[in-house]
Sequence to fold (346 residues):
Amino acid sequence: MNNKQDILAMTLDELEKFIDSIGEKKFRSKQIYQWLHEKRVTSFYEMTNISKSLQDKLNENSIITPIKEITKLESQDGTIKYLFELIDNNVVESVFMTYKHGNSVCISSQVGCRMGCKFCASTIGGLERNLSASEMLGQIYEINRISGKKISNIVIMGTGEPLDNYDELIKFIKIINSEQGMNISQRNITVSTCGIIDKIYALAKESMKITLAISLHAPNNEIRKKMMPVANVYEYDELIKACKDYVDITKRRITFEYSLVKDVNDSIECALRLSKVLKGILCHVNLIPVNTIEERDYRHSNSETINAFKNILEKRHINCTVRRELGSDIDAACGQLRRSYNKSNL
Ligand code: SF4
Fold:
């Protein structure tokens, strides 16, 4: 990128300062912002209502971070998984899904991940780097451009731990939510975390109306530690307390993600214990039949076990659903497409 500024990652305030710094009038910022985030051009020379000299100046001093589709896999259920190449040749994946309530895109927030969750393919090669806000936006803009479909929901649940890339995440949310941009309601944005407690408190203070999803996956610290190394750093009880505090501060319902793994966390005792832990919290539990990953020995719980688990929670008034398996015919589990691409390009 040389010393060029990442213009796509600038909030409107930041863009105004940048425009001022290159000696241009502030009112140009809004026009440029709309070109970038509403019309989503990929070159300054497509900005037809600004002068050629300003186009040149923008081109000299900044860059519209490129992102390029390498491949895509389409499922029979309408799910499309995209693999994108970034400016430094790293690759990330994103998933387009259709629901009754609208189209949703799940994006990556990092190249790889350092969190080491045992059920996840994204972490196998470790963390390569954080994504910039522009690269997070780019995944959505490109999918919108390629598919021509309206996107109404965003889920930051692909590769990476979003709260491990906090500042870029917040910028991303502000830009995607802005009126002069895609104007996606904060209520339609879900951020998923494996439980970085200090960042959960920071997020609570942002006063955003987003949905926070916690990858919980266990009813106690002992089992959680086996599945998620992050539990060695952040104690289970402290995480649950942070979740309660988050709900108190934001008044937003929290989501708990619980991947059911055969003989690891899917017993009746686990369901009973989980019900106790979550009692009284304004929450929703997403039960996820775990995806089988070649490199791990985790297996899918059977449907009887899944239903029994769900019934126990429901009987104790814990709101829960079993996540519909989308894209199972195209390996839509997080990190799998990127991993097979990297393997075949070694
Ligand atoms: S589940 Fe999320 S946080 Fe855990 S390793 Fe995978 S990408 Fe990272």
